[in-house]
């Protein structure tokens, strides 16, 4: 395997009621655990957010308030929080824009619902930061925003199927990371090294994210 793992790396993705990391809620989540032997172990959970899903979020994900708050969708996060936190024990974290979005939202949800989770010494690998940093000449006006669909197309040579399905997005992010490691031999091969790389290059990622927000591509 192209990445050296001393412990599992969990790719996470959330579908949410909106883009506010402190006030919006999770409606669907997926954790895909990449084990050191290369095996992938998924955990997918639908969540009743207890609040309306914004029109912008519904337009992208196809999940409406009547779905997410309906009787047959899923339980409140508080009821399944312990199971989810247990899945993350002893793992580092990866995702696409997770440092700026998914992890802050997850931490806010844990605090809100009393879920025992701390980031602690976990390393974080953000595949979007790698994309931004290693492709500095990308023109979003000609090629579109550097979102996950673009990353799958650019690195994996295929279209993203079932975009905004949390599990599909997690697996696609894992595929993109492995393809990036194959394409760029100068990237660190281990998670601590990738973590440090992402931390050093966060400023450029924030500037790119601000550009996407201005062009209306934040949910893309």
Short description:
With 220 residues, the chain is an alpha/beta fold. The protein has helices spanning 55-61, 65-68, 77-87, 98-113, 127-134, 140-143, 148-156, 166-183, 191-200, 202-214; strands at 9-16, 26-34, 40-46, 92-95, 124-126.
Q: Considering the protein shown, what is the CATH homologous superfamily?
A: Ribonuclease H-like superfamily/Ribonuclease H
The portion of residues assigned to helices is: 40-55%
Give the strand order, joined by hyphens, for the main sheet. 3-2-1-4-5
Number of domains: 1
Low-confidence runs = 214-220
| Chain-averaged pLDDT | 93
- Quickly count the helices: 10
Annotate the secondary structure layout.
Layout: E1 9-16, E2 26-34, E3 40-46, H1 55-61, H2 65-68, H3 77-87, E4 92-95, H4 98-113, E5 124-126, H5 127-134, H6 140-143, H7 148-156, H8 166-183, H9 191-200, H10 202-214
Parallel strand pairs: 1-4, 4-5
Antiparallel strand pairs: 1-2, 2-3
Helix pairs in contact: 5-10, 7-8
């Amino acid at each position: 395997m192209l990445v050296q793992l001393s412990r599992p790396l969990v790719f996470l993705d959330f579908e949410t009621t909106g883009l506010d990391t402190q006030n919006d809620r999770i409606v669907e989540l997926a954790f895909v655990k990449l084990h050191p032997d290369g095996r992938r172990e998924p955990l997918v959970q639908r969540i009743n957010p207890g609040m309306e899903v914004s029109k912008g979020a519904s337009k992208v994900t196809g999940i409406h308030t009547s779905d997410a708050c309906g009787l047959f969708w899923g339980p409140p996060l508080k009821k399944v929080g312990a199971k989810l936190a247990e899945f993350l024990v002893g793992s580092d974290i990866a995702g696409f824009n997770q440092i700026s979005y998914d992890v802050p939202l997850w931490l806010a949800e844990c605090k809100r619902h009393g879920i025992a989770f701390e980031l602690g010494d976990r390393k974080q690998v953000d595949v979007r930061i790698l994309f931004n940093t290693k492709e500095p000449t990308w023109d979003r006006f000609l090629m579109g925003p550097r979102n996950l669909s673009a990353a799958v197309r650019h690195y994996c040579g295929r279209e993203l199927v079932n975009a905004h399905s949390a599990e599909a997005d997690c697996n696609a992010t894992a595929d993109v990371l492995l393809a990036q490691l194959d394409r760029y031999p100068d990237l660190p091969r281990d998670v601590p090294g990738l973590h440090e790389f992402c931390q050093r290059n966060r400023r450029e990622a924030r500037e790119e994210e601000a550009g996407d927000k201005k062009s209306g591509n934040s949910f893309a």
